[in-house]
Description:
Elements: E1 2-7, H1 19-22, H2 27-37, E2 42-47, H3 51-61, E3 67-71, H4 80-88, E4 93-97, E5 119-122, H5 127-141
Helix pairs in contact: 3-4
Amino acid sequence: MKIAIINGPNLNLLGKREPEVYGNVSFDIFFAQLQAKYPAIQLVHFQSNIEGELIDALQLYGFNSDGIIINPGGYTHTSVAIGDAIAAITVPVIEVHISNIHAREDFRKLSHISAKAVGTIAGLGLKGYDLAISWFLQDQLA
C-alpha cells in the first residue's frame, strides 16, 4: 500500500510555528515516527508553500497511490483549484488539519476541500494523520 501525505503552506515550520497551536514536533520527526509505526506501508511526503506544486503532487499521486492525506494549510479556505484537482483524481483523499479550523476565525470555517474528500479530521493535532492512515488500512480490509 502506498499513501501520500501532502502538506501545504507553512507546515514546513511545524515545531517552530505557534507551538501552542501546532505542537513542538517537526513534521520530519513525526513522519519518521509514522514510517516506523507502519513499516508495511510505503509512505511518501510532499510539502510546498506553492499552490501549483500542491496541485502537481495531487495529480502525480492521485493516479499511482492508494490514498492521499492532505493538509492544504491556508489554501483550504482559498483554493478552488486544489479542490478541483482532488475531484479530478481517482484515489480517496482525507483532509487533515492539526488545529480545529471550525473553532478559529470565521474565514477558516470554509473549506474548498471537504466536499471533495472522503472525510475530514480536524483539531486532533498530528494524531489526525495517524487516524487517516488507520482509515486507509481498515478501508482496504473491508
